[in-house]
Write a structure and sequence with these properties.
This protein is an alpha+beta fold. The protein has helices at residues 28-35, 51-61, 63-68, 81-88, 111-116, 168-184, 203-212, and strands spanning 13-17, 23-27, 38-43, 71-77, 104-106, 124-127, 132-135, 143-148, 154-160.
């Protein structure tokens, strides 16, 4: 996984699909900068799989909380727009994601996924004749997450292996912590949550915080 923390997210357009069956282009960087909003972009392995729908529904349930935090939510995989729409049209009780309203990137050519290096590379091999790394079959994205600020800078990125679903509340906590730093200039210690003490970013600040906790 390439490290984009502290850097601008790549500016690239990717096909996307919504619950209405509309296919359109999304540039994640522009979504942040033009709308002056934070963006959570989360990758998942494949449509019509097992852990994935639980994550997409969990993000949907938390959508009002992301909205409160001036944050846009975008899903992503390497399936085609047509497969996305088929899954969006499949009822929840049949393993589908009907009811999900945020856009889902359809990075079928894997352009963005390759730039971000979020793809499973276990099938990579070195081809001596081509003097290049080759991948057998279509590579699959891990459960990678990127959170951008209003200027398009990545302030969080992380990745889970296929079997391990994400904790959506942790992303809300990270957004709260970063917003607190933006507003007050204070830094947020371990296990910080909204309403808890933060601290000044200096020796006196950490000493005072540790003395109280």
């Amino acid at each position: 996984m390439s490290n984009f923390v502290g850097k601008k997210f790549p500016s690239i357009e990717v096909d996307a699909m919504n619950e209405m069956g509309d296919t359109f282009k999304v540039n994640v960087l522009e979504e942040a900068v033009k709308n002056k909003k934070k963006v959570v972009l989360f990758w998942y392995p494949k449509d019509f799989t097992y852990v994935c729908p639980t994550e997409l529904h969990a993000f949907q349930e938390a959508l009002p909380e992301f909205d409160k935090r001036n944050t846009i939510l975008i899903g992503a995989s390497c399936d085609t727009p047509e497969v996305h729409f088929a899954w969006l049209s499949t009822p929840k009780d049949n393993g589908g994601i009907e009811g999900v309203t945020y856009p889902i990137l359809a990075d079928a050519n894997r352009n963005l996924a390759n730039i971000l290096k979020v793809l499973d590379t276990t099938n990579e091999r070195y081809d001596e004749e081509l003097d290049a790394v080759q991948t057998d079959g279509d590579s699959t994205p891990y459960r990678a997450t990127f959170i951008l600020d209003e200027d398009g800078m990545v302030f969080h990125q992380g990745m889970n292996f296929f079997p391990v679903g994400r904790n959506i509340n942790e992303f809300l906590r990270l957004i709260d912590a970063y917003a607190h730093n933006q507003k007050f200039g204070e830094v947020c210690p371990a296990n910080w949550e909204e309403g808890k003490d933060a601290m000044k970013e200096n020796r006196d600040g950490v000493a005072d915080y540790l003395a109280k906790h």
